Amino acid sequence: RGTTFDANGDTLAVSYDSDKVYVDPSDIEKDSDIEIIAQGISSILGLDSAELTVTLNESTKRVLIASDVEKEAIDKLKEWKNNLKIKTGISIESSTSRYYPFHTLASTVVGFVGTDNQGLYGIENSWDSFLSGTSGKSVSLKDASQSEIANSQQTYIAAENGYDLTLTIDTNIQDIVEEQLAEAVNKYECESGITIAMDPSTGKILALADYPNYDCNTPFTPNPRLLETWDSLSNEKKTASLYRQFAPKSITDTYEPGSVFKIITSAIAVEENLMEPDIAGTFSCYGSITVTGEKKPIKCHKTAGHGKQSLTQALGNSCNPAFVELGLKIGSKLSYKYYDAFGFFGKTGISISGEPKSGIFYPINEINDHELGTASFGQRFTITPIQMITAASAIANDGDLVYPQIVESMTNTDTGEVTTFETQKVRQVISKETADT
Fold first, then answer.
1. What band does 183 get if pLDDT is binned at 50, 70 and 90?
2. What are phi and psi of 15, to 5 degrees?
3. How many C-beta atoms surround the C-beta of residue 64 within 10 A?
4. Which residues, 6+ apart, have CB-to-CB distance to 376 below 8 Å?
């Protein structure tokens, strides 16, 4: 299986030779004592003897007893087998195991593999067909009794190693981001948090962090945060919580973006020449605004209000009433046109699985003025964090929307050929002039 590197060449995931131990109770000599065999294997491999005895007594087929066994233990096991003259039922197979040197760092990005070395989550899963390589084969003709036909042509197909991947993730930036994210989540007593760092001109993801995270080497061990309530959970919730910790939530989860969305509303208004940014007194904020036909006012975070403001001042003040006015001036048809252009109505195309098909918005023919007003400052609809940062990056990138990128390149380890993934532009959403403004 190919090795995964970060942008600096640091190893994030690597395979190494190891051994697996199997026991087939049905193939053990009839006069052998299962309990004695279980005790012998357990003492050498550091397993629970009672549990292994139960497993072997209940199994009717071959069972994987241990993976990633060190050579010293394998040598002891072979010597023990020879001393007891056990010839069948216990097998040792050479294999490869996966190791993650950074343990928890970028764990939801990197993911992990299962006991069969197949990628289960993150990059390990999404790029499994490139990482895993292919086994070698021998193809020959056989007759009905499965005997090879003499003098028939036999073809050998060589095995191919998996590709190496280089990610756009920078472990230095990732480490800083994860440290600060954990501090914030704990300080404000949140359940969890996510942070993304993106280069807006290229779409490269420099850091993508979840807290709490997990150790890729022991993925089915609850993280410390989950352990706090682990014993109180039902079996179903334990399973759901474990799988939940694997997900890169900035890609898989939707949320209300809130006031960061005001830059999108501002960009639409400026691009469509509906508003001059610096005309004094354009908006009046008295602490709340009530949309015509509605009884419930939409409040500003500053209860005394911001008074008279230009658009630039309203954006700087993060003033909700001003943006309700602005959203209504833009209207639903124009708003939805730009929401689509900024990429909120479809996948961003980032190459990690789990991204939903679209953000969740009111149908354009059903949205009312109150809902349109709240949408102008990022409420009453949901998108993914990766959609939000991709759209925000378009404004920072002269109005050009680019695909977010998490894999920099891949290398054919058999030939040395390197395939580099270049920045891909989706479309120009707003003009450079509007983006500069």
1. very high
2. -100, 150
3. 12
4. 261, 262, 265, 323, 324, 326, 327, 328, 330, 335
Nearby residues of 109 by Cβ (< 8 Å), 6 or more positions away: 122, 123, 167, 169, 208, 248, 352, 406
Residue 206: the pLDDT is: 98
The encoded tokens of residue 428 equal 């120009």
Determine the 3-state secondary structure of 64 from DSSP. Answer: strand
Q: How far apart are CA 112 and CA 122, in angstroms?
A: 7
Query: 345 burial class (0-12, 13-18, 19+ CB within 10 angstroms)?
Result: middle
- Tokens encoding 50: 């009672």
Residue 154 exposure: Cα atoms within 13 Å on the Cβ side:
9
pLDDT digits 0-9 by tens, 53-103: 888 888 878 888 888 788 888 899 889 888 878 777 888 888 788 999 999
Cβ atoms of 213 and 178 within 8 Å: the answer is yes
In this predicted structure, the answer to whether residue 148 has a pLDDT above a threshold of 80 is no
Residue 355: CB atoms within 10 A of its CB come to 20
CA 245/CA 250 separation, integer angstroms: 12
- Residue 249, both tokens: 């939530």
Amino acid at 200: P
Q: What's the CA gap between 260 and 393, in Å, rounded?
A: 12
Q: Which residue has the tokens 């472990």?
A: 171
Q: Is the pLDDT of residue 418 over 90?
A: yes
The sign of the dihedral angle between the CA atoms of 426, 430, 432, 435 is negative
CB 267 within 8 A of CB 395: yes
pLDDT of amino acid 30 = 63
Distances (CA, A) of 202 to 72, 78, 208, 408: 49, 55, 16, 11
pLDDT (average), residues 309-324: 97
Q: Which residues pair with 194 in a beta bridge?
A: 210
Q: Is the dihedral of CA 30, 35, 41, 44 positive or negative?
A: negative
Span 216-257, pLDDT tens digits: 999 999 999 999 999 999 999 999 999 999 999 999 999 999
407 with 13: CB under 8 angstroms? no
Cα separation, 290 vs 307, whole angstroms: 16
- The structure tokens listed for 164 are 């190496």
Tell me if 214 sits within 8 A of 223, measured CB to CB: yes
